[in-house]
Design a protein that fits this description.
The complex is a heterodimer of chains A (113) and B (116).
Chain A lengths: L8 E5 L4 E6 L7 E8 L6 E6 L4 E2 L4 E4 L5 E6 L8 E9 L14 E6 L1
Parallel strand pairs in A: 1-9
Antiparallel strand pairs in A: 2-7, 3-4, 3-8, 5-6, 6-7, 8-9
Chain B lengths: L3 E4 L2 E4 L5 E7 L6 E7 L6 E7 L5 E2 L8 E7 L2 E6 L8 E8 L7 E3 L3 E5 L1
Parallel strand pairs in B: 2-11
Antiparallel strand pairs in B: 1-3, 3-8, 4-5, 4-9, 5-6, 7-8, 9-10, 9-11
Classes of the chains: A mainly beta (113), B mainly beta (116).
């Protein structure tokens, strides 16, 4: 069972920031928060991950609450190409076979002109 | 970022035949690779975890004799769907786990299998 809760769908205007929330109230101390997205008929694309500190890369920012029970993925300037299903996943870190990802339903983000 | 390839990108086969799908990590070594399956309008479902040089670990409900996995090198894992039937038609996606402290799974582009 997925350990995260995400809204089923969201809309965002092109050029505006897209803020995608995720609840993971049962997250364990050794679990990271990973974000992936899947554009139709393609494999998932890695976006970002974090443990407890906020993270930023060239694609997005990840804001994790202090209690780690929720997080927000921020796409600062959404484009039409950002239309995809976004998955928030919690998983233990470490290079071992236990580092599997359990995909839930994700959030279908529609970026509109 | 790390690149994972899959071959073929799509395949159509007759019922009863076997199909092999390759997954390669192009610019990094992966001791662990994963195989997922995705049916239309559904999320990805993990089928098995593949470790280089050892037997794969299958998720509950996935037949190991039907979905043969071989991870013979640090950059290649293969999934063979044996005696394929129409209900095996799906989108098969692999991922490779990068090491070196990043511990991130990178996914291939997927293989669409259609069994007639």
């Amino acid at each position: 069972d997925a350990k995260t809760t995400q809204p089923t769908s969201m809309d965002c205007a092109e050029g505006r920031a897209a803020n995608l929330p995720c609840n993971h109230s049962t997250i364990s101390g050794n679990e990271y928060v990973y974000w992936y997205r899947q554009i139709h008929s393609q494999g998932p694309q890695y976006i970002i991950h974090g443990l407890k500190n906020n993270e930023t890369n060239e694609m997005a920012s990840l804001i994790i609450t202090e209690d780690r029970k929720s997080s927000t993925l921020i796409l600062p300037h959404a484009t039409l190409r950002d239309t995809a299903v976004y998955y928030c996943i919690v998983s233990p870190g470490g290079n071992n076979a236990g580092n599997m990802l359990t995909f839930g339903g994700g959030t279908r983000l529609m970026v509109k002109p | 970022g790390a690149v994972v390839s899959q071959h073929p990108s799509w395949v159509i086969c007759k019922s009863g035949t076997s199909v092999k799908i390759e997954c390669r990590s192009l610019d990094f070594q992966a001791t662990t690779m994963f195989w997922y399956r995705q049916f239309p309008k559904q999320s990805l479902m993990l089928m098995a975890t593949s470790n280089e040089g050892s037997k794969a670990t299958y998720e509950q409900g996935v037949e190991k004799d039907k979905f043969l996995i071989n991870h013979a090198s640090l950059t290649l894992s293969t999934l063979t769907v044996t005696s394929a039937h129409p209900e095996d038609s799906s989108f098969y996606i692999c991922s490779a786990l990068s090491g070196g402290g990043t511990d991130t799974q990178y996914f291939g582009p997927g293989t669409r299998l259609t069994v007639l």
